[in-house]
Amino acid sequence: MMRYVRRFGFLSLALAGLTLAGTNVQAQSQTQVQSRNQTQAQLLTRVMAPPKPASKSAMPATQTGGIHVYLLRGWLDVFSTGMDDLTVKLNQRGIRASVHGHMDYYSLADSIANRYRAGRGERVVIIGHSLGANAAVEMAARLGELKINVPLVITYDPTITEHVPANVARLVNFYQSNNGWGGRVETGPGFRGQLSNIDLARDAGLDHVSIDKSNKLHMQSIGYIQSLGGRAASAPKPAPAVSSTEKPAASTEKPDASTEKPAASTEKPAASTEKPAAPVSSQAPVPPEEKRPPL
Asked: Rounded to 5 degrees, what are φ and ψ at 72?
């Protein structure tokens, strides 16, 4: 009898142990499920969260009335990496610049107009290559529709003949007439600014794909922008105070010696045709002897 009790008691303990083990496994499974659900929730939160705004440390802060250069890439944003390089060069010189795709020109113009309405206007400079050059002129035209003037547009090898709108003060076009792509820019209705078509056909080292990467043209473009006052000007140094004991510098200038001589008179005195009068004696004239008749 005791043997059966012990046997069944052992079985009971074994069953109890299995029950407890199952309970622990179930508890662990629930914990794992909860942990997995939390992880998935965190991942979904990260995916659905809005993107963080891009850091502005690489671009100088916009100032009211300051210059902002908008650079537009060409087809598929692939073949116009020179626009990215020029953007870096401008920002390094303290000129605010940003690079965009050529299809963004319309929305960029509207954004500029919105900032103008909010009292945060800027002096707009537009640069583009290939299709971006076409879009640069179109962007300027759109700004003209919004009553915003553009002081400078620079185009690198536009693929169609564009016409400068009247609100542009100056347009410089770098192009090659012999590469099969580049073309001139013409004046549009009402345009009274300055238009420069610079044909680089003789430069064998350039073509449509490489013209936007020319460091020489980059430097020329930067010069055009700096002529507008785009680079931060350093404060002028005060003039040294003039001591009251200083003597004025002696003038080294000498008066110009007169080299003019009086003209010699070529006129001759007219010969007098009058005879001089006989001298008048102070003594009384002697009367002539009277002839007496013969006696």
From this structure: -120, 125
Token pair belonging to 276 = 């001089």
Q: Flag the least confident range among 93-97, 125-129, 241-245, 256-260.
A: 241-245
User: Residue 158 in contact with residue 173, Cβ under 8 Å?
Assistant: yes
CA 160 – CA 157 distance, rounded (Å): 9
CB-based burial, 2-24: b 16+ in 10 Å, e otherwise: eeeeeeeeeeeeeeeeeeeeeee
Residue range 245-291, pLDDT digits in tens: 333 334 333 444 443 444 444 444 444 444 444 444 444 444 444 44
Q: How far is residue 5's CA from residue 193's CA, in Å, rounded to a whole number?
A: 113
Taking only Cα atoms into account, the Rg of the chain, rounded to an integer number of angstroms, comes to: 50
Q: How far apart are CA 78 and CA 187, in angstroms?
A: 30
pLDDT tops 90 at residue 150: yes
Residue type, 209: V
Residue 68: closest CA among 15, 37, 109:
109
pLDDT at residue number 38: 53
Contact assessment for residue 209 and residue 217, using Cβ atoms and an 8 Å cutoff: no
Tokens encoding 206: 């350039």
Per-residue model confidence as pLDDT tens digits over 20-29? 445 454 544 5
- Of 162, 188, 158, 194, the C-alpha closest to 175 is 158
List, as one string, the DSSP characters of 58-96: TSPPP-TT-EEEEEE--GGGTS-HHHHHHHHHHHHTT-E
> 137, 144 in Cβ contact below 8 A?
no
Burial of 68 (C-beta count, 10 Å sphere; 0-12/13-18/19+)? buried
Owner of token pair 């003060």: 169
Side-chain half-sphere CA neighbours of 12 within 13 A: 6
Orientation of helix 81-92 relative to helix 215-226, angle to 10°: 50
